[in-house]
């Protein structure tokens, strides 16, 4: 009955099956096999990644909840906690972009309110193929409207995010969504089941056949009973989730719950097992009591369904009526489906007879763990070589060409304004957003407090492709730097690790190196990882995406009104560059856009210098010494200063940089000075009479700082080594920057 | 005065309106659950933004049947001031408390951004503290804000001077490029013939505090608060009735 074909359809290896038989002391039935297959899947068990993830720093005095729960939590003072996590929904979004992205948003929101926190902000990090490549438009439109459709309806603002376009993602886009909520630190609730005899409740949408793995559905036994085969992508219902959100938060106020968990991946199976395992207890349910959307569903289907907007609750004995009453108010019906037991078993019944019986431990703690073989990829040495001298002959630029170059960079979809995207997201609902999307990190004030939280998600797959260790460190540094630029002190991080097939040694090597890099940077910058998600097998036709760790960092502004945005504020302010440009062109947007080249080493990162810069940025904002602050990254200094001019009503700026000596040809030196992406830099604008104070603070913090120019006028004017190389109106530059993505879609409609 | 803020399942700007009334303007505020029929002594009723009942059918189409709407209608018929913001405006249209209907935005996308509005009428409780021609910068956030009325209805609306706010450019000129959703006659806000029921797509509660990047929405709240102390307001709540109510000024 369970032959090698059945095992293959369940993604189980023969030796894994042998372990199952050993645990049970008998052959599993098909329902049990299904339960094992999802709990031991990469997605639920982290079997390939776990040994590496264990090396990440997860501790710190600020950490209230580290990895292992539905989301992480940090102390933000005044008895409050910020609860946050990032998660991927890459595969579903590729198959059905609208629903894939929408249900990704729904899933991460549930993870947050499950902890007892009121979700107050969303971010997303997206990766697509080239904007003009076939298919990108459909995917981008679908994903953006899916995120908008869910987030706008439920009323949680999408306050920021980032997006990049690279051919490597054409066959495998990335959709990573981040959510942050606020809870009283003392009210955080966990996903535990304990206390024998306590009731297990099911609440939310009915269970259907959606989300059951297509391959599993094809097994012979189910063909007869499954009248229809639903696609593996679920459909989201933000209204149902809004009701669940409000009702659950209300129920949590009456101290009637032992634990609560959402049914995400692996649905009822994962929630019952994990809650029991965390509480050292068993859970017994009867699937016949589970509300069902379709008739004739088998226990197998009910246990494996990934229908959305469902929650599992363990209610204290005697409080059942109180809980039911609140759900009734919201027109939701909490259904009693089972009990907590003492025997540590997951026991599934159907109309009273046992259909599956497995020790929780076997499904969670005892799940397989692999130390997969690793090998340095062969392509690395080749792509890391970058001989700038080769470029000189191929495409030499005159000084006057810099105008075209800077416009090309500003119009590159990865750099260009993302307004076409974020204006489709309600980014102001809840009236907390004090730094709008596109102006730097997302910042939300906390009502009833003077405080605010800043958050940013960042990652650069191109850097990681060239050097996963350094690229991952740079992702942590950039996310934390963006938070610091807004004036907030970075507190902690969450990560979403998007990689290819871990069974291939070069991919596993990339993964291990990236995790090492994240660990090193998080330790140095004191932003422990409080949770996250791993997404592997991001491949199409055997071709993996760029290794893409996305890092979300959360920071605290003790005084919300000290928030700083990227935009220049007043004419006549002094522009100060913090940090040092070393003319590093490796992996840059410049090489990509102008020379169609992805190569070299990503910028070097001195973690001590990075930390000093971030501390300084927070000090300067807090003492009100700066009027604007912007991270210097994609496109280098020239693009950073141009961006400071945008959305200001056309305010100009002029600045000068000394030549940077990286190549024999001075024309490339100019490019390196303007567009090099050296890390640990920020552009700040300062009222002239405070410049001395700023330079003093920088010197005290050991951060190189130099006055490079001033704001004012209507033109962007740049000189390198004493020669004027860029001189154009801000209006013209801004038109290119703000219309690049808009125009792409306008063309399509016309 | 007491602001009554209706909460439909799926409302999501109810807390924002409550915060503005209570914390920013120092007024009393009460949530009014949609299944209730008691306005809890409200002097003004706000139907907030959101997606009442999910708005899967048609915006506001389900909400009009919520029990609280009977009480809101009676309150409006007595002359009580009612403000529908965004989804609240859509619900007022579906309820027939205001004329016309909403279509999907031109461009078919949800739009969240600041827009410019010209105040057309100051003879409503929600614009009484402004002057005609004032240009306000207030955010919108909607997918169905493309106001439509058939020609004869539109004619009546204009003749009765029921258009309270229009989308304009920053200088107060009507211009299609500055009409974010394609609304006919650039209509952003509308009142009934009696002028006590006002609907508007933009969100004034999102523009009441400097930290949020603009304070032009204050004009709407300041108007109604000023109206609360006026003779019209006293006429609505005679002294005896006021004493019976749960709340007084």
What does this structure look like?
The complex is a heterodimer of chains A (750) and B (249). With 750 residues, chain A is an alpha+beta fold. Chain A is 37% helix and 23% strand. A seven-stranded mixed sheet of chain A has the order 8-10-7-11-9-12-13, with helices on both faces. A seven-stranded mixed sheet of chain A has the order 23-25-22-26-24-27-28. In chain A, a hairpin with a 6-residue loop joins strand 14 and strand 15. In chain B, the strands form two sheets. In chain B, strands 2-1-3-4-11-10-9-6-7 form a nine-stranded mixed sheet, sandwiched between helices. In chain B, strand 3 (44-47), helix 2 and strand 4 (82-85) form a beta-alpha-beta unit. Chain B is built from seven helices and eleven strands. Chain B has one domain (2-248): Rossmann fold (3-Layer(aba) Sandwich). Chain B is an alpha/beta fold and 249 residues long. Chain B is globular, with a radius of gyration of 17 Å. The chains are: A alpha+beta (750), B alpha/beta (249).
């Amino acid at each position: 009955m369970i032959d090698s074909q059945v095992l293959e359809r369940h993604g189980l290896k023969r030796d894994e099956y042998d372990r199952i038989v050993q645990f049970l002391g008998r052959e599993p039935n098909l329902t049990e096999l299904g339960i094992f297959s999802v709990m031991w899947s990469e997605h639920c068990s982290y079997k390939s990644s776990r040994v590496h993830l264990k090396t990440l720093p997860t501790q710190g005095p600020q950490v209230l909840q580290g990895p292992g729960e539905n989301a992480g939590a940090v102390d933000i003072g005044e008895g409050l906690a910020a609860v946050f996590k990032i998660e991927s929904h890459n595969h579903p979004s590729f198959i059905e972009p609208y629903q894939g992205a929408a249900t990704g948003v729904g899933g991460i929101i549930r993870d947050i309110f499950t902890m007892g926190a009121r979700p107050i902000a969303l971010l997303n990090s997206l990766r697509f193929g080239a904007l003009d490549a076939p298919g990108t438009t459909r995917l981008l439109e679908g994903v953006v409207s899916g995120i908008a459709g869910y987030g706008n309806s439920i009323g949680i603002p999408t306050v920021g995010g980032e997006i990049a376009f690279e051919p490597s993602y054409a066959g495998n886009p990335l959709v990573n969504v981040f959510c942050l909520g606020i809870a009283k630190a003392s009210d955080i609730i966990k996903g535990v089941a304990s206390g024998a005899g306590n009731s297990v409740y099911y609440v939310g949408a009915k269970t259907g056949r959606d989300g059951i793995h297509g391959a599993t559905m094809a097994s012979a036994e189910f063909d007869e009973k499954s009248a229809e085969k639903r696609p593996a992508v679920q459909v989201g219902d933000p209204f149902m989730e809004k009701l669940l959100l409000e009702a659950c938060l209300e129920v949590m106020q009456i101290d009637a719950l032992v634990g609560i968990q959402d049914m995400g991946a692996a649905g009822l199976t994962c929630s019952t097992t994990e809650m029991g395992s965390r509480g050292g207890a068993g859970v017994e349910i009867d699937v016949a009591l589970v509300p069902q959307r379709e008739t004739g569903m088998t226990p197998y289907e009910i246990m494996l369904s990934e229908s959305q907007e469902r929650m599992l609750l363990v209610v204290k004995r005697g409080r059942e009526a109180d809980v039911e009453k609140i759900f009734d108010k919201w027109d939701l019906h909490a259904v009693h489906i089972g009990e907590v037991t003492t025997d540590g078993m997951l026991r599934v019944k159907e109309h009273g007879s046992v259909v599956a019986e497995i020790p929780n431990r076997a499904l969670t703690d005892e799940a397989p763990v692999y130390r997969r073989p690793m090998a340095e990829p062969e392509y690395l040495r080749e792509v890391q070589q970058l001989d700038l001298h080769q470029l000189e002959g191929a495409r030499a630029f005159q000084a006057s060409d810099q105008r075209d170059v800077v416009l090309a960079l500003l119009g590159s979809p990865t750099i260009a304004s993302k307004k076409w995207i974020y204006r489709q997201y309600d980014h102001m609902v809840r009236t907390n957003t004090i730094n709008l999307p596109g102006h730097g990190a997302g910042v939300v004030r906390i009502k009833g407090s003077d405080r605010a939280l800043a958050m940013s998600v960042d990652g650069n797959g191109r850097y990681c492709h060239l050097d996963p260790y350094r690229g991952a460190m740079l992702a942590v540094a950039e996310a934390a730097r963006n938070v610091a630029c807004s004036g907030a002190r970075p507190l902690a991080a969450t990560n979403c690790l998007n990689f290819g097939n871990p069974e291939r040694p070069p991919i596993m090597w990339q993964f291990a190196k990236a995790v090492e890099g994240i660990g090193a940077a998080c330790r140095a910058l004191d932003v422990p990882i409080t949770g996250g998600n791993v997404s592997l097998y991001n491949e199409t036709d055997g071709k993996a995406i760029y290794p893409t760790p996305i890092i979300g960092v959360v920071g605290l502004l003790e005084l919300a009104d000290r928030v700083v945005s990227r935009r220049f504020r007043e004419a006549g302010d002094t522009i100060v560059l913090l940090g040092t440009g070393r003319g590093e062109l490796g992996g840059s947007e410049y090489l990509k856009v102008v020379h169609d080249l992805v190569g070299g080493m990503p910028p070097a990162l001195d973690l001590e210098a990075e930390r000093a810069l971030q501390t300084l940025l927070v000090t300067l904002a807090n003492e009100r010494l700066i009027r604007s602050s912007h991270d210097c990254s994609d496109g280098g200094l020239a693009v950073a200063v141009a961006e400071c001019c945008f959305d200001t009503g056309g305010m100009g700026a002029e600045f000068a940089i000394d030549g940077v000596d990286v190549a024999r040809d001075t024309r490339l030196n100019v490019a390196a000075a303007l567009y090099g992406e050296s890390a640990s830099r920020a552009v700040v604008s300062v009222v002239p009479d405070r410049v001395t104070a700023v330079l003093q603070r920088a010197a005290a913090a050991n951060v190189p700082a130099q006055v490079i120019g001033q704001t004012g006028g209507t033109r962007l004017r740049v000189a390198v080594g004493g020669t004027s190389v860029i001189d154009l109106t801000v209006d013209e530059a801004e038109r290119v920057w703000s219309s690049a993505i808009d125009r792409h879609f306008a063309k399509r409609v016309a | 005065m007491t602001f009554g803020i209706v909460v439909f399942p799926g409302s999501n700007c109810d807390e924002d309106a409550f915060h503005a009334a209570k914390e920013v303007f120092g007024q009393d505020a009460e949530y009014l659950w949609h299944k209730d029929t008691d306005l809890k002594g409200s002097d003004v009723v706000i139907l907030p933004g959101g997606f009442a009942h999910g708005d899967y059918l048609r915006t506001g189409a389900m909400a009009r049947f919520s029990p609280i709407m009977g009480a809101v209608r009676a309150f409006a018929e007595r002359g009580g001031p009612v403000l529908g913001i965004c989804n609240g405006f859509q619900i007022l249209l579906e309820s027939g408390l205001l004329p016309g209907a909403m279509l999907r935005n031109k461009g078919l996308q949800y739009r969240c951004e600041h827009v410019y509005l010209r105040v057309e009428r100051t003879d409503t409780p929600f614009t009484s503290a402004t002057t005609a021609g004032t240009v306000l910068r207030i955010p919108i956030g909607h997918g169905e804000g493309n106001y439509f009325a058939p020609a004869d209805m539109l004619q009546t609306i204009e003749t009765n001077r029921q258009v309270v706010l229009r989308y304009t450019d920053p200088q107060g000129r009507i211009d299609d490029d500055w009409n974010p959703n394609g609304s006919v006659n650039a209509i952003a806000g509308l009142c009934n013939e009696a002028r006590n029921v006002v609907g508007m797509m933009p969100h004034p509660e999102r523009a009441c505090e400097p930290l949020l990047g603009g304070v032009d929405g204050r004009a709407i709240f300041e108007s109604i608060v000023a109206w609360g102390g006026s003779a019209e307001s006293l006429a609505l709540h005679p002294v005896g009735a006021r004493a019976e109510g749960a709340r007084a000024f």
